[in-house]
């Protein structure tokens, strides 16, 4: 008895099949070319109804928050004297109360020292007492929420939850670092005259830690 051996059937590539395969290949290439890889923030924005703290900060910082702080800014010595005389009256006249602490928008000119290990630059301001430190946050870490809270226009009620509210503060600080401090040569500041506009939250009356929205360095 003989056993029949089957021979695999060869696939015939007819012109129609070749055309179909080519069309599929072209379609796949077009799909790959049109595909955009989203960053974390872009992916968040792509979800309907989602909120991006980074986008909020980018939109509001230069267009609304900085101009508002500049408009509100009062001479630092004037603010200090008001605080020393009557903290409550000073907060009502010059500050924006956020939680239990007032936030002040200020401006001043003085002589800069080299930033310390915490990224805080001491500035000697004429008219300020020697026992009150004036410190400007120069990064890379920017702490606190003074920029978020200085105008009174960024309120917790605007956000879905506390996390978004906190993240907006952090993203606004990032805007300070990336758009304000990035323009300053830290290594050459010591001994130079600087003019600063910014905001601080009154926590320690012996040290005003100011987050800047504008720094001008004299030649």
TrEMBL record:
InterPro entries: TM0957-like_sf, UCP033535_lipo
Pfam families listed in its UniProt record: DUF2291
Entries under SUPFAM superfamilies matching the protein: TM0957-like (SSF141318)
Gene3D superfamilies associated with the record: Envelope glycoprotein gp160, DUF2291, alpha/beta domain, Envelope glycoprotein gp160, DUF2291, helical domain
Protein known as: DUF2291 domain-containing protein
Organism: Arthrobacter mobilis
């Amino acid at each position: 008895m003989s056993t029949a051996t089957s021979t695999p059937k060869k696939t015939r590539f007819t012109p129609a099949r070749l055309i179909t395969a080519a069309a599929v290949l072209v379609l796949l290439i077009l799909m790959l070319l049109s595909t955009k890889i989203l960053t974390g923030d872009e992916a968040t924005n792509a979800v309907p109804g989602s909120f991006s703290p980074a986008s909020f900060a980018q939109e509001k910082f230069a267009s609304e928050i900085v101009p508002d702080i500049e408009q509100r800014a009062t001479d630092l010595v004037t603010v200090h004297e008001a605080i020393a005389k009557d903290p409550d009256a000073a907060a009502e006249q010059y500050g924006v109360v956020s939680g239990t602490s007032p936030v002040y928008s200020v401006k001043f000119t003085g002589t800069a020292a080299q930033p310390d290990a915490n990224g805080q630059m001491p500035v000697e301001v004429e008219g300020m007492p020697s026992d009150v430190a004036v410190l400007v946050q120069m990064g890379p870490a920017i702490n606190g929420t003074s920029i978020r809270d200085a105008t009174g226009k960024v309120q917790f009620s605007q956000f879905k939850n506390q996390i978004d509210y906190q993240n907006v503060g952090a993203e606004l600080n990032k805007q300070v670092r990336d758009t304000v401090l990035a323009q300053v040569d830290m290594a050459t500041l010591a001994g130079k005259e600087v003019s600063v506009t910014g905001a601080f939250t009154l926590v320690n009356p012996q040290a005003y830690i100011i987050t800047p929205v504008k720094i001008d360095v004299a030649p």
